[in-house]
Give the backbone structure.
Amino acid sequence: MGGPGDPPEGTPEGGPGGAEDEYRSVVFDESFVRAARLQEFSAEERMADHAPAVRRRPPLHRGLTRQALVLVLLIAVAFATAIYMGVRHPYGSPQTRRAVESLRMTVIPLAPQGKVPGTTDPERLYARSPAAPYETGAEGIPLPASRGTAHFSDSQVVTALTTAKDYVVRSSLYPEVLSGREVSPARALIDSDQLDQFDQSFDHPAADGRHAATGWVVRIDPARARLADGRIRVFGSLHAAEADSATLEVTADHTFVYALRPTGAAAGAPASLFTVRREVTFRLDRDDLRTHQVQLVTSYVQAGPLACAEDASAYLRPLLAGQTARSGGPAGTNPYETDSATALCGTLATGAQPKV
């Protein structure tokens, strides 16, 4: 019995079925036909003036698929980005970061030996004090000449010094920081691993050597005193050195002299000088250099005239013109002298006061 496509009587003997079986393995599908380089003219075309029976077809243009083009483009972009980042990154490959230490701080009040001298003219106070030759504001914090170290380039050392100077300026000269209204200018430069200690020092200040707000910034009690002259006198130095192959250390040693009047007093009320000596050690690793932030390692502060009995952890509460301290500490300490150390409370040297 024949198949569904065969005649009822079956395929005739010697018919085309045998030839079909012979060439069944040769398949002329559509792609094969379209790929042929020669094409026969149609019967209608051959009736015209075409001498040849066939014509040559133009070659097929095989291009990349859209997916392949997108893939090639993505690879090229990734390769270019890798090269760009390798050229632009100035601090080398990321390394495992050393744990950041907590800031250790000491705040030493210096009590006056008699009445705090004062006058209505702040300029006269400055002129008759050891601060007379000091520069005003940030001009008193010049950057030193610097060179690269064994593991840090010239530009990295300059970045460390500049960042440390920025912190000194923001924490000692900004009026909003001095008055206790803001801490954000200084906080923005603190390494993120020290922010918890920084915030706790302002939220819950304590004289425990770790959490005094006055160990981080110069902060004068706004209920007691205000600036009588915004031209704060400053003198000091910055020094950078390599602590190890991964860290730069900057030492900032500066004396700041503020002219103050009692809060709420008239502009003509007597003013007095308040002197703060700050020695701060900073560390900056390669992450800090990149983000322009600092780690504070030690902060040593001498400030006066202050009363020894006052808690200086939250604010510095200066004694003002005409006021005296009930008791002092060890023999006179002069915050203008770089080697003048003292204990938990000291006596402000007579030579550190203006002669009025």
The two ends are 136 Å apart (CA to CA). The mean pLDDT is 84.
